[in-house]
């Protein structure tokens, strides 16, 4: 049955239920309040597929993902859905600064954490560690995507990982990790730094 | 890989104050991130503004500090006196955790108000306006209490008696003194120590902490993140019937235990 038909049927048959659901369908999600369309709540209750949204990578590849998943994790996407700038029938959300490979990984992260949020801490941490087992370019891309989409827990995870990567390292190694070719200091400043932190070099 | 300054600041904020100083040397961008108010705001305790503004002599510290970093360095370099001269506050340089010292005036010293037993005198080397000087007693009993709410949560702290000995002190070389520490309503741990640093023997002696002060540890306690507990300390020698004199008490200091 067409989604549109179901919607019309419900809207027509159950105006009072719809009114009740409108009042009821406010759920707190990661600190933001999200209103779900009452028809879709009913559909979800009836076991229909959960509402999806479309994300479009910089390579123009479309990814369909549960709205619930992205709204729970990304402040940016949550705001777009909430303020109505996203139209479910027609829109896709263009993410011009995220490539397909990275977008797929971000979606994986959000999906796993939504569906497995009741898992024990150790299992989640092990999954996270495996998830971040990427090269430094991959990590950089993930960080930029998480930053753009404002995915707090992924950001915390990546920041923590990078912090551990530089812990106890000498300055040359840190410059290598961050691919810093030109540190920007004058020779005198560099000399001064060496004197101040001899063991760091 | 060109990380924006905001991301770099977020990474550095998760390291330590010492690391943040070193990371200034990585690159100009790192230096800008590492010196930022965002990073040092994360290192400072959240109630630092109200703490400092309650210090009479140092309320200008906030306005004079040009940045959170300079405020942090100022607070970790030297203590400020707060609470009408009854306490001092400082930041532990490495960790940014709070350190306090209860002045002698904030302690309960038995016979402390009787001038022939204890005198209250100003001392240039003390951060407080007065210290307690023992003329002579047989009954030595000093008690202190602190609410753990003022300390940094989830931290192991140690408490230290901070004191000095006059040249002509008597009664402390051979006579051990009982130090005790514990939470109100809980068990106390006690130990017998010798306060005179020039004593021989096997008991624990005090350490020098900066002329003329000595310190000796009461013990260690853990500050939980949720409960407001009272930690109690005492210094007691009332059994031996030995005359004691020449002890100067500055206060009791609380600071994070090293291996935090």
TrEMBL record, chain A:
Domain of life: Eukaryota
Keyword Lipid metabolism assigned: no
Domain SKP1 component POZ: 51-114
Keywords in alphabetical order: Ubl conjugation pathway
Protein's GO biological process: jasmonic acid mediated signaling pathway; protein ubiquitination; ubiquitin-dependent protein catabolic process
SUPFAM superfamilies named among the record's database cross-references: POZ domain, Skp1 dimerisation domain-like
Pathway given in the UniProt record: Protein modification; protein ubiquitination
Domain SKP1 component dimerisation: 153-198
Family under the similarity heading: Belongs to the SKP1 family.
Full protein name: SKP1-like protein 11 isoform X3
Source species of the chain: Arachis duranensis (Wild peanut)
Automatic annotation (TrEMBL), chain B:
Pfam families noted in UniProt: F-box (PF00646), PP2 (PF14299)
Ranges where the F-box domain occurs: 1-43
UniProt-listed InterPro entries: F-box-like_dom_sf (IPR036047), F-box_dom (IPR001810), PP2-like (IPR025886)
Protein name: F-box domain-containing protein
Organism in which the protein naturally occurs: Arachis hypogaea
């Amino acid at each position: 049955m067409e989604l549109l038909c179901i919607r019309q049927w419900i809207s027509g048959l159950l105006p009072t239920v719809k009114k009740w659901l409108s009042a009821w369908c406010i759920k707190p999600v990661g600190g933001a309040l999200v209103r779900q369309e009452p028809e879709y709540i009913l559909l979800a209750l009836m076991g229909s597929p959960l509402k999806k949204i479309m994300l479009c990578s910089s390579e123009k590849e479309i990814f369909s993902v549960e709205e619930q998943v992205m709204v729970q994790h990304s402040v940016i996407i949550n705001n777009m859905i909430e303020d109505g700038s996203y139209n479910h029938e027609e829109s896709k959300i263009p993410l011009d600064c995220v490539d397909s490979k990275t977008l797929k990984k971000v979606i994986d992260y959000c999906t796993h954490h939504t569906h497995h949020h009741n898992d024990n801490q150790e299992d989640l941490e092990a999954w996270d560690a495996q998830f971040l087992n990427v090269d430094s370019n991959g990590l950089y891309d993930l960080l930029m995507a998480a930053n753009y989409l404002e995915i707090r827990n992924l950001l915390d995870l990546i920041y923590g990982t990078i912090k551990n990567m530089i812990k106890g390292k000498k300055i040359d190694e840190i410059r290598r990790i961050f691919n810093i070719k030109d540190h920007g200091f004058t020779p005198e400043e560099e000399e001064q730094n060496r004197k101040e932190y001899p063991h760091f070099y | 890989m060109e990380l924006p300054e905001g991301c770099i600041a977020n990474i550095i904020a998760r390291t330590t104050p010492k690391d943040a100083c070193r990371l200034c040397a990585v690159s100009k961008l790192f230096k800008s991130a590492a010196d930022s108010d965002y990073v040092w705001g994360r290192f400072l305790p959240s109630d630092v503004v109200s703490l400092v503004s309650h210090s009479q002599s140092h309320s200008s510290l906030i306005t004079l500090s040009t940045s959170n970093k300079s405020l942090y360095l100022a607070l970790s370099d030297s203590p400020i006196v707060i609470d009408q001269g009854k306490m001092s506050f400082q930041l532990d340089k490495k960790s940014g955790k709070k350190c306090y010292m209860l002045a002698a005036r904030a302690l309960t010293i038995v016979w402390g108000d009787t001038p022939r037993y204890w005198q209250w005198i100003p001392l240039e080397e003390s951060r407080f306006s007065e210290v307690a000087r023992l003329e002579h007693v047989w009954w030595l009993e000093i008690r202190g209490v602190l609410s753990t709410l003022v300390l940094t949560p989830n931290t192991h702290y140690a408490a230290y008696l901070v004191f000095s000995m006059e040249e002509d002190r008597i009664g402390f070389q051979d006579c051990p003194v009982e130090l005790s520490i514990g939470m109100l309503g809980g068990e106390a741990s006690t130990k017998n120590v010798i306060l005179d640093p020039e004593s021989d023997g096997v008991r624990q002696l005090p350490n020098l902490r900066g002329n003329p002060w000595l310190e000796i540890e009461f013990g260690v306690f853990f500050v939980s993140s949720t409960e407001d507990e009272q930690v109690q300390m005492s210094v007691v020698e009332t059994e031996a019937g030995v005359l004691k004199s020449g002890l100067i008490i500055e206060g009791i200091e609380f600071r994070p235990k090293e291996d935090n």
